[in-house]
Amino acid sequence: MIAGESVSKRKKITQILAEETGGKSYKAHKYSLDSERTSLEYSEGEDQTFSWKKHGETEPSTTYKSLETLARFLAERDEQVLTYFLDGSRHVYKVDDMAYTQSGNRSVIYPTIAGQVGVGICKRQNKMMIPEALTREIVLSVPSIADPSGKGGFFEALSVKLNESNELARIKQCGWKFATPIPYEIKQDERKFEDRGTARIQDAMIKREKEMVKKLVREGKLNQDNYLVKDGSLEYRLTKTDKDDDKSFQTFKQNYNWVIGLSKSFNPEACFDKGKANPGFIADLPLYHRTPVAYFGSEKEPLAFAVWYVRLRDKSKTRTPFDGILKVEKILVREDEIKNGMETETVDRLSALIINERNPTCYGTDTRWANHIYPIYLTERFVKSQYLSPESFLHLF
Question: What pLDDT is attached to residue 246?
Answer without folding.
Answer: 83
